[in-house]
Amino acid sequence: YFISLVFSELHCILLHLYDCTSAARYRFQKPQSIEEFLNPFIIDLLEIIDNGLTMNDTLFTLEISNISCDAPAKAFLLNVKSHNAYFGCTSCTEEGTYLEHRMTFPGLDTPLRTNETFRNKTDEEYHKGDSPLIRLPINIVEIVVLDYMHNVCLGVVKRLIEMWVKGNKQVRLEKVKKEKINFELNNLKQHVPAELCRLPRSIDDIEYYKATELRTFLLYSVYAIKILTCADTCCTYNDLASQFLKEFVRDYSVLYGSHLITYNVHSLIHLPMFVLKHGPLDNFSCFQYENYLVLT
Ligand SMILES: *[C@@H]1O[C@H](CO)[C@@H](O)[C@H](O)[C@H]1NC(C)=O
Ligand SMILES: *[C@@H]1O[C@H](CO)[C@@H](O)[C@H](O)[C@H]1NC(C)=O
Ligand SMILES: *[C@@H]1O[C@H](CO)[C@@H](O)[C@H](O)[C@H]1NC(C)=O
Ligand SMILES: *[C@@H]1O[C@H](CO)[C@@H](O)[C@H](O)[C@H]1NC(C)=O
Ligand SMILES: *[C@@H]1O[C@H](CO)[C@@H](O)[C@H](O)[C@H]1NC(C)=O
């Protein structure tokens, strides 16, 4: 059995047990500290990981396959500085640059964090204290994944479209071009496959776009992400996607300004690594849990 843990800003722990049909959900009061929040759970989990769980005379063993959450919940869980801090990238050791009231991470080749450097707290500027996760037998930097629903769809894609629709004059789309996009999106409605749950709508409605709509927009326009979402291409063309994403971040800086290379934009360059470990993006994204979270 595999277990994947999803932590949300609503302070739920969602457990997904593979080969079981149900996802369990626990809800907590807003926790005071990460220790208080997680300790009882970690103790139980360790017990099961070490000894397995016997049900009806059958012994089940358990392995943690991934832990996914949005950036604030991830910083809380890892007990590290926030994604807006100077050493806020959870994948690499880049020192951020503070530009126009934003923390930015322009570097593309900074050394990565590792299981050992995390556990040794080698980067003193990064850690706030011990994370309860270090008691689990996992490679922390690989198992705690970058979630593309929050990071890419609700993060980068939404921000880009917002700039095109209502950004300042240098980056805003001319009215004619915007109307053209809206016209094409409207035209697309009749061709949308039944699998997509929402019809395309005008980018003027960007503030109401749901994560799934942002994903559709993304997958029909950005090649690198398409490579990483498809099981056939995500490993064979992983290097190519990595190059594209680095190029994207470089161009982003030229087109929109280096002050906008924030945590979400910077993190794009780390996505291909997680795909190599966990498979296509949807394997380790929060999308499959979104409905549970919305219901709470
Ligand atoms: C255990 O056995 C009972 C009775 O046969 C059955 O109803 C239940 O589903 C079984 N549980 C599991 C986890 O297999
Ligand atoms: C971690 O700490 C141990 C003991 O202090 C040391 O031997 C080891 O080299 C360190 N590893 C890294 C990657 O910093
Ligand atoms: C990560 O470090 C922990 C503690 O040293 C160890 O138990 C675990 O096997 C390591 N995981 C990997 C994949 O290196
Ligand atoms: C991705 O998820 C599918 C379905 O859950 C699974 O069969 C596959 O092994 C996963 N890929 C990796 C690399 O973990
Ligand atoms: C966790 O990993 C498993 C196996 O790689 C995958 O099938 C699943 O989709 C992942 N779940 C989450 C929430 O990331």
Task: Explain the overall architecture.
By secondary structure, the protein is α/β, with parallel strands linked by helices. The protein has one domain (3-289). The chain has helices spanning 34-51, 71-78, 115-120, 140-143, 148-166, 175-188, 211-219, 223-229, 238-256, 263-267, 271-278, 290-295; strands at 2-7, 12-17, 23-27, 53-55, 58-60, 63-69, 97-99, 102-104, 144-146. The strands form three sheets. It has a five-stranded mixed beta sheet with strand order 3-2-1-6-9, with helices on both faces. The chain has a two-stranded antiparallel ribbon with strand order 4-5. It has a two-stranded antiparallel ribbon with strand order 7-8. Helix 5 packs across helix 7, helix 8 (223-229) runs antiparallel to helix 9 (238-256) and helix 9 runs antiparallel to helix 11. It is globular. It starts with a strand and ends with a helix. The model is unreliable at 18-25 (pLDDT under 50). One 2-acetamido-2-deoxy-beta-D-glucopyranose binds at residues 116-117, 120, 122.
